[in-house]
C-alpha cells in the first residue's frame, strides 16, 4: 500500500498548490487599480447604483470574506460572472479551453516528432559534422523563446513565403458544423478534411513557435541518453544479429533512453501551455490566453481569476499525468 | 587528427566570442545612443511614413533601415531601444538573481521548515502561467520601467531558487563542507566561504540567461502595450507596431526582431560559454 | 580442410592517437572447430571478436587486412551485405549476461527477432524454435520464460538464454567473448559445459575469447596467444600444454593455476620475458611503419 500513500500525498500537495494559487491571484486581483464598476455604469449613475453593483459582485465585503465566499462558490463550480461580458466565467473559460488544448497538444506532438527525429538523426550521425550542426541548431532552438520564434515565423512564412495562415483559428467565412469547441478533433471525426486542413493551416505557425524550444530540449536530452545507450551490450548484440544502425537505435536504444526525456517533457509541457498566452495573442488565435490578456486589459477580475485557476489546474494535472505515465512505462517499476 | 575535446573547446570559445561581440555592440549602442543615432527617436513626419531600407527603391538617405508608419527612423529607435533592453536586463537580472539565490541558498543549506515553505512557494509559482502573471502584475503596478523590473523579479525568482537550492544541497553533502564545520566555522561562514564559490558558476550562467529572459519579458509587455510607455522606443513596442503593418512595411518588424533575437541568443550562449570556461569541474 | 573464418594480417589502430591495437593478426577457424583466443586484458583479443562481427567501437579503425567468412572478405563487402552475412552465419555469446539483454523487451522477442527480421521466418515457427532451443539449454517452462523481462531472471538463467539465442538460428560460427567471466564460479562450470555440449551437438565453429588457459584446455582444439595486439603463438591445445614455443606463452602457462591442483603456487610472468616480447613488438612496429 506504499503506492496508495504516495498517491494520496501527491494529491494533497497538488491541492495545497491550487489553493495557494487561488489565494495569490485573489489578493493580486483585489489591488488592481482602476474601478471596474465605474466602467460598467451608464453615465449619470447614482452612488446608490454603484453600491448596488458592488453588492452584486460582492465587492462591498472585506477581502478575506470575499475570498471565502468566492472559494465556496468555486467549489460548487461557480466562478462568478465576467464583468465585461456579464456571462458566467466558467462557461466563457470552458468555451475557450478546447482551442488552447488543441493548440498545445498539436505543439507537443510537433515538438516530440521534431525533437525525436533530430535526436535519432544526431545519434545515427554521431562523431560527424552533421551531429555538430544538430548541436548548434539545438543550442539556438533552446535559447530563443516561443514569442520570438512566433515573430520570426510570421516574417518568414507570413510575408516572404505565405503558405500558412498567421492570424485566427479558422477562415472566418467558413460554415462550421461543429457542436463542440474541439474544432480540429471534431473535423476529423466528421471526416470534414477540408476543414481539418483549414484548421491545421491556421494552427501550424503558432504550434511550431511553441514547439521549437521544446523540440530542441527533447533533441538534446534524448540524443545524450541515446548515445549512452547505443554502446551498451544489448545494442551491440543486436548489431551482430544483422540489424542496421537505425533499427538498433529505434528498437533497442530508444525504449530504454526515453524515460529521462519523458519526465522532462512533462515539466516542459506546462511551460509550453504557459507560452500559449502570448503566442495566441501574436497569431490572434481565439484561445484562453488571448482571452486572458483581454481580461487583464479590461480589468475583468472574475474572468482573470477563473483563467489563472484553470491554467494552474491544467499544469498540475499534466504533472500528475506524467508521473503516472512514468510509473507505467518503466517495466521495473511496474513489476516491483 | 580530430581530438574530440579540442573540438568542443573551440566551439565553446567561438560561442563566447561571437555572443560577447554582439552584446558589446548593444552596450555601445545604448551608451552612445545620442551620438550614433542618425535621427531623433521621437520625431514623427507623416510625409516620411513607411520608407523602405536603403537597398530598396524609394528609400530616403539618412533613414538606413526605413521608417515606421509615423515616419520615425527604425535604426534610431532600435539604438534607443537597446537602452531600455539593457537597463531592464541588468536591473531585473541582478535583482532576480540576488533574491532567488538567497532563497535557494537558505532552502538548500538550512533545510528544515525554511526549505519546506520556500519549496511550497516555488510549487505554487510553477503553477502560474508566467506571461499571464507578468501581465497581471503590470496591470496592478501600472506601466513604467520599475514595474517591469518588479514584475520580472516576482515571476522569475524561482528559476534561481530551484537551481541554487539543488546545487547547494549537492555541495552541502561534500566532504569539504563537513571538514569546514568540524574545523569550527559557523554555518553562515561555511555557506558564504565554502559553498557559495562552488555554486557561483551555475549562478553566473543563470544570470546571463535571466538577462536574456528579462529582455524578452520587457518585449512581450511592450507588445501588449503594458511596458514603459507607448511612445518610448522599445524593441517590443516597435515589434507590436510592425506586426500591424507587416504586409505594408515588413522592415518595421524585421529589424528590431533581429536585434531582439540576437540579444536573447547571445545572453544565453554567453552564459553557457562562461560556465564552460570557469566551471572548475568542467575545466 | 577449409577454414570457415580466416583472418589475414589484420591491423587496427585507435582513431584519435593512432596507437596500434592489432598487429597483423592472422588466424583460422575451421568448420566445426573450437579456436581459443588467449591473452591478458588489453591484449586485443575481444577486439578481434568484435572485428569479425563488425561491431568494433567507433574509436578503433581497421587499417589493413582481410576477414574472410566462407571465403568472402567482410571488410570489402557493402555494409548491407556484411550485415546479412554476419546476421545469418554468425552469432555472439556476450560477456555479461546482465547487460546483454534489453531490459525493456521480453525474453521471447529477443530470441526470435533475428529469425523473423533477418532470416525471414514466420513468427509462429520462430516462436516454436525459441521454445525448443530454450528447452535444449535446460530452461524450465520455456513458454513462460519467454514472456518475462530480463530483470526477472538470474544471471545464470540469462546467460543460458543468450547461449540459446546464439544457437537458435544454427549459425556456422559463434564468437564467445569471455562468456563465463561475469558469472559466479559455481555457475561458470555449468555454462562452460553447456557451451561445449551445444557446440558439439550443433557442429558450430567457435571462436572462444578468454584470459583463462584452464578454460582453453577444457574446450578448445587449438589456440592463438595474443600479446599487445600480436599473435605470439598459434598451435594446438595438446602441443601448447605439452611444450609452449614462445617464451611469453610459457610464462603465461606458468602463471595459470592448474585446475587439478588449485593450491599450487603461481609465478607471475617474469619481467625479462615481457621486455623481450615488447622489444619484438617494437621491432615489428618499426618495420610496419617502414612498409606502411
Count of helical stretches of chain B: 10
Q: Which chain pair shows the most residues in contact? A: A-B, 51 and 45 residues
Level-2 CATH architecture of chain C: 3-Layer(aba) Sandwich
Q: Helices and strands of chain C, in N-to-C order?
A: EEEHEEHEHHHHEHEHEEHHH
Number of strands of chain C: 10
Total individual domains of chain B:
1
The name of the CATH architecture of chain B is Orthogonal Bundle
**Percent range for helical residues of chain B?**
over 70%
Largest sheet of chain B: none
Low-confidence stretches of chain B: 1-9
Supply the number of structural domains of chain C. Answer: 1
Q: What is the mean pLDDT of chain B?
A: 84
Count of helical segments of chain C?
A: 11
Give your account of this protein's structure:
The complex is a heterotrimer of chains A (336), B (283) and C (292). Chain A has 336 residues and is mostly helical. Chain A has a domain at 99-290: MetI-like (MetI-like fold, Orthogonal Bundle), CATH 1.10.3720. Chain A is 76% helix and 0% strand. In chain A, 41% of the residues are buried. Chain B has 283 residues and is mostly helical. In chain B, helix 1 crosses helix 3 (74-110), helix 7 packs across helix 8 and helix 9 packs antiparallel against helix 10. The longest helix of chain B is centred in the first third of the chain and has 37 residues, at 74-110. The model of chain B is unreliable at 1-9 (pLDDT under 50). By secondary structure, chain C is of the alpha/beta class. Chain C has one domain: P-loop containing nucleotide triphosphate hydrolases (Rossmann fold, 3-Layer(aba) Sandwich). Chain C has helices at residues 45-53, 79-89, 107-118, 123-136, 142-146, 155-168, 185-202, 213-219, 237-242, 247-254, 271-291, and strands spanning 3-14, 20-30, 34-39, 60-69, 72-73, 90-93, 173-177, 205-210, 222-227, 230-236. In chain C, strand 9 (222-227) and strand 10 form a beta hairpin. In chain C, helix 4 crosses helix 6. Chains in contact: A-B, A-C, B-C.
Amino acid at each position: 500500500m506504499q503506492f496508495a500513500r504516495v498517491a494520496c500525498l501527491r494529491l494533497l500537495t497538488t491541492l495545497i498548490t491550487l489553493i495557494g494559487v487561488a489565494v495569490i491571484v485573489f489578493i493580486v486581483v483585489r489591488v488592481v487599480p482602476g474601478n471596474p464598476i465605474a466602467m460598467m455604469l451608464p453615465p449619470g449613475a447614482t452612488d446608490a447604483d454603484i453600491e448596488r453593483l458592488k453588492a452584486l459582485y460582492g465587492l462591498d465585503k472585506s477581502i478575506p470574506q470575499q475570498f471565502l465566499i468566492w472559494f465556496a462558490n468555486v467549489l460548487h463550480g461557480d466562478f462568478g460572472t465576467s464583468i465585461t461580458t456579464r456571462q458566467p466565467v466558467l462557461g466563457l473559460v470552458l468555451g475557450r479551453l478546447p482551442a488552447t488544448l488543441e493548440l498545445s497538444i498539436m505543439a507537443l506532438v510537433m515538438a516530440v516528432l521534431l525533437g525525436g527525429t533530430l535526436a535519432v538523426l544526431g545519434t545515427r550521425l554521431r562523431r560527424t559534422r552533421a551531429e555538430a550542426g544538430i548541436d548548434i541548431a539545438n543550442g539556438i532552438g533552446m535559447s530563443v523563446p516561443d514569442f520570438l520564434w512566433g515573430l520570426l515565423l510570421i516574417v518568414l512564412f507570413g510575408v516572404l513565403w505565405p503558405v500558412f495562415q498567421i492570424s485566427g483559428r479558422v477562415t472566418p467565412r467558413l460554415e462550421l458544423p461543429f457542436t463542440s469547441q474541439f474544432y480540429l478533433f471534431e473535423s476529423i471525426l466528421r471526416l470534414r478534411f477540408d476543414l481539418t486542413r483549414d484548421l491545421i493551416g491556421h494552427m501550424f505557425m503558432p504550434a511550431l513557435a511553441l514547439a521549437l524550444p521544446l523540440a530542441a530540449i527533447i533533441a538534446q536530452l534524448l540524443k545524450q541518453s541515446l548515445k549512452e545507450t547505443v554502446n551498451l551490450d544489448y545494442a551491440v548484440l543486436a548489431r551482430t544479429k544483422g540489424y542496421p544502425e537505425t533499427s538498433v537505435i529505434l528498437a533497442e536504444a530508444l525504449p530504454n533512453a526515453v524515460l529521462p526525456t519523458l519526465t522532462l517533457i512533462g515539466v516542459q509541457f506546462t511551460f509550453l501551455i504557459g507560452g500559449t498566452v502570448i503566442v495566441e495573442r501574436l497569431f490572434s488565435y481565439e484561445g484562453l490566453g488571448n482571452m486572458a490578456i483581454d481580461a487583464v486589459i479590461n480589468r475583468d477580475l472574475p474572468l482573470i481569476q477563473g483563467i489563472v485557476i484553470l491554467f494552474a489546474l491544467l499544469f498540475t494535472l499534466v504533472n500528475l499525468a506524467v508521473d503516472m505515465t512514468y510509473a507505467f512505462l518503466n517495466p521495473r517499476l511496474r513489476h516491483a | 587528427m580530430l581530438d574530440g575535446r579540442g573540438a568542443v573547446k573551440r566551439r565553446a570559445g567561438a560561442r563566447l566570442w561571437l555572443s560577447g561581440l554582439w552584446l558589446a555592440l548593444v552596450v555601445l549602442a545604448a551608451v552612445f545612443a545620442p551620438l550614433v543615432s542618425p535621427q531623433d527617436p521621437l520625431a514623427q513626419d507623416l510625409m516620411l511614413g513607411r520608407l523602405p531600407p536603403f537597398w530598396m527603391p524609394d528609400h530616403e538617405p539618412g533613414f538606413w533601415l526605413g521608417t515606421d508608419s509615423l515616419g520615425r527612423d527604425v535604426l534610431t529607435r532600435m539604438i534607443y531601444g537597446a537602452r531600455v533592453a539593457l537597463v531592464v536586463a541588468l536591473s531585473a537580472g541582478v535583482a532576480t538573481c540576488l533574491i532567488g539565490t538567497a532563497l535557494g541558498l537558505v532552502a538548500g543549506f538550512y533545510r528544515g521548515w525554511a526549505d519546506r515553505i520556500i519549496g511550497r512557494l516555488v510549487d505554487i509559482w510553477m503553477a502560474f502561467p508566467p506571461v499571464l502573471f507578468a501581465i497581471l502584475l503590470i496591470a496592478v503596478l501600472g506601466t513604467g520601467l520599475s514595474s517591469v523590473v518588479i514584475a520580472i523579479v516576482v515571476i522569475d525568482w524561482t528559476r534561481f531558487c530551484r537551481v541554487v537550492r539543488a546545487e547547494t544541497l549537492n555541495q552541502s553533502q561534500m566532504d569539504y563542507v563537513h571538514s569546514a564545520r568540524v574545523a569550527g566555522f559557523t554555518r553562515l561562514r561555511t555557506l558564504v566561504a565554502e559553498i557559495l564559490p562552488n555554486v557561483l558558476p551555475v549562478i553566473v550562467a543563470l544570470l546571463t540567461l535571466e538577462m536574456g529572459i528579462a529582455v524578452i519579458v520587457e518585449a512581450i509587455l511592450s507588445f501588449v502595450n503594458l511596458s514603459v510607455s507607448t511612445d518610448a522606443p522599445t524593441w517590443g513596442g516597435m515589434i507590436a507596431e510592425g506586426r500591424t503593418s507587416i504586409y505594408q512595411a515588413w522592415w518595421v518588424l524585421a529589424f528590431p526582431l533581429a536585434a531582439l533575437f540576437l540579444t536573447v541568443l547571445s545572453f544565453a550562449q554567453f552564459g553557457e560559454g562562461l560556465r564552460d570556461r570557469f566551471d572548475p569541474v568542467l575545466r | 580442410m577449409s577454414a570457415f573464418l580466416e583472418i589475414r594480417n589484420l591491423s587496427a589502430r585507435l582513431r584519435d592517437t593512432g596507437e596500434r591495437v592489432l598487429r597483423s593478426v592472422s588466424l583460422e577457424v575451421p568448420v566445426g572447430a573450437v579456436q581459443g583466443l588467449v591473452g591478458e586484458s588489453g591484449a586485443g583479443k575481444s577486439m578481434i571478436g568484435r572485428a569479425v562481427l563488425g561491431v568494433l567501437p567507433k574509436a578503433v579503425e581497421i587499417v589493413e587486412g582481410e576477414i574472410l567468412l566462407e571465403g568472402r572478405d567482410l571488410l570489402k563487402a557493402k555494409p548491407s551485405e556484411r550485415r546479412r552475412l554476419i546476421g545469418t552465419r554468425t552469432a555472439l555469446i556476450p560477456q555479461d549476461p546482465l547487460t546483454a539483454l534489453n531490459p525493456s523487451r521480453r525474453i521471447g522477442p529477443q530470441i526470435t527477432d533475428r529469425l523473423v527480421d533477418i532470416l525471414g521466418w514466420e513468427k509462429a515457427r520462430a516462436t516454436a524454435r525459441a521454445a525448443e532451443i530454450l528447452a535444449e539449454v535446460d530452461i524450465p517452462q520455456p513458454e513462460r520464460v519467454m514472456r518475462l523481462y530480463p530483470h526477472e531472471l538470474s544471471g545464470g538463467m540469462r546467460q543460458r538464454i543468450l547461449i540459446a539465442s546464439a544457437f537458435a538460428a544454427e549459425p556456422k560460427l559463434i564468437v564467445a567473448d569471455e562468456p563465463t567471466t561475469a558469472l559466479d564460479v559455481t555457475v561458470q562450470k555449468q555454462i562452460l559445459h553447456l557451451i561445449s555440449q551445444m557446440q558439439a551437438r550443433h557442429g558450430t565453429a567457435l571462436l572462444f575469447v578468454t584470459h583463462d588457459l584452464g578454460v582453453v584446455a577444457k574446450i578448445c582444439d587449438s589456440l592463438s596467444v595474443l600479446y599487445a595486439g600480436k599473435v605470439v603463438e598459434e598451435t594446438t591445445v595438446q602441443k601448447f600444454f605439452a611444450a609452449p614455443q614462445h617464451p611469453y606463452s610459457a610464462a603465461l602457462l606458468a602463471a595459470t593455476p592448474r585446475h587439478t591442483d588449485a593450491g599450487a603456487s603461481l609465478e607471475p610472468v617474469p619481467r625479462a620475458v615481457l621486455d623481450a616480447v615488447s622489444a619484438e613488438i617494437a621491432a615489428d612496429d618499426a618495420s610496419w611503419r617502414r612498409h606502411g
